[in-house]
TrEMBL record:
Gene name in the database record: gerN
Protein name, as recorded: Na(+)/H(+)-K(+) antiporter GerN
Entry keyword annotation includes Transmembrane helix: yes
Lineage: Bacteria, Bacillati, Bacillota, Clostridia, Neomoorellales
Keywords tagged on the record: Antiport, Ion transport, Membrane, Sodium, Sodium transport, Transmembrane, Transmembrane helix, Transport
GO cellular component, one term: membrane
Length: 392
């Protein structure tokens, strides 16, 4: 029997190594954790356990929820055309390109090609949100537009997966009904709950949110769907409230990034088998190029149409080209239900993970917008307000 504490130390040691490497190299910590996971799986014998799978699942749920909560409803309404246009193009063209490549060029079955189209059409909420938080761009309008566009893209993924593969049974009806009721009442009820029970040592507000996430996630699983899908919608439902409750957001973000998300990102890297990657290298490279090229064909012209600065447009396009959370979820869904083989699964997951790494590294290295002066000016403005009041 394995020693649970030593296994935990191994995983958190790798997470610590990833964090140190991220600090030394300037690369996003989420990407470094994926890279360390690849090394751990191929050279160190790293493997998952049921409790690691649970923590990784919770990490993906919380990260997806926080990403939805960062979608500013005001920005989504005021920049609705930009968000919807970029988001839809970011989904539709890669879906068509990946489906055509898998079905016509590789000769995959129709369901396998549909899974390929869904998996490679996604934009990684987890990676984009992690990068936004690390760089502080989540506080900028550009960052919020990107997060809103991510929401539209992944909403297309959810709808496609549901329409093409969901089982419309009693559990699906119950899941849809409960989710609709929760989303309708949760914005107002959350305010009342936290006004009465918030800011206590017992952290009841966080327990309350975890209860809702696990409840909807459990119903989604019973309906043959995925637990992260309602988490995104729940985050969006409370987004306006969360933007006011900065302290609550910070506590949940700290908990997620310190302990939960490292298990998710390390496990994502663990999916990559280097021998299988070498065997299918040609297919993987072409599929990656198709995903990135179709993202550029759709997103870049849209950013120019909406008069983004060239640097911001390229940065937006590259981040919209990433994939991870919903891409791996879609691939795993296909494998678990027999729509794709293990070899096809390895190809898709490798492309998804490479799409999380390559565009993000290019965006961060060469096209990251310089928003620091505006952020610093905003912080100085807030810092001066109490001094003025004291002077009066």
């Amino acid at each position: 029997m394995e020693n649970m504490w030593l296994v935990a130390a191994e995983w958190l040691g790798l997470a610590l190594a990833g964090g140190l490497l991220a600090g030394w190299t300037g690369i996003s910590i989420s990407l470094m954790e994926i890279a360390v996971g690849v090394i751990g799986g191929n050279f160190l014998g790293l493997h998952t356990t049921p409790w690691v799978d649970f923590l990784a699942g919770v990490g993906s749920i919380i990260l997806t929820f926080l990403a939805g909560a960062e979608v500013d409803p005001v920005v989504l309404r005021s920049r609705f055309k930009e968000s919807v246009a970029i988001g839809l193009l970011s989904f539709a063209l890669p879906f068509g390109g990946a489906f055509a490549y898998a079905y016509y060029a590789l000769g995959w079955t129709l369901p396998a090609a549909e899974i390929a189209g869904i998996a490679l059409s996604t934009t990684s909420v987890a990676v984009v949100y992690a990068v936004m938080v690390e760089t502080g761009l989540n506080e900028s309008e550009l960052g919020r537009i990107i997060l809103a566009a991510c929401f539209i893209t992944d909403l297309g993924t959810v709808v496609a997966l549901g329409v093409l593969f969901a089982n419309f049974n009693a559990w699906m009806v119950l899941f849809i009904a409960v989710t609709a009721v929760v989303l309708a009442i949760v914005p107002r009820f959350s305010r009342l709950f936290i006004q009465h029970y918030g800011n206590r040592v017992s952290q009841l507000e966080i327990k309350y949110l975890f209860f809702l996430l696990f409840l909807l996630g459990g119903l989604a699983s019973m309906a043959n769907s995925e637990a992260v899908l309602p988490a995104y919608l729940l985050g969006l439902a409370v987004a306006g409230f969360f933007l006011e409750e900065k302290n609550l957001t910070l506590r949940m973000r700290t908990m997620a990034f310190a302990f939960l998300t490292p298990f998710y990102f390390l496990k994502a890297g663990l999916f990559v088998s280097l021998p299988a990657v070498i065997t299918s290298a040609g297919i993987i490279i072409i599929a990656l190029l198709i995903k990135i090229a179709t993202k550029f064909i759709g997103v870049w012209p849209a950013t120019r149409f909406f008069k983004f600065e060239p640097r911001e447009g390229m940065y937006t396009t590259l981040l919209m080209s990433t994939g991870l959370t919903f891409g791996t979820i879609s691939s795993l869904f296909g494998l678990n239900h027999g729509y794709i083989s293990q070899a096809q699964y390895t190809i898709l997951v490798t492309v998804v993970i490479l799409s999380a790494v390559v565009p993000t590294m290019i965006a961060q290295a060469f096209f990251r917008p310089d928003l620091a002066p505006a952020v610093k000016q905003e912080k100085r403005r807030h810092a001066l307000i109490p001094q003025k009041e004291e002077g009066n």
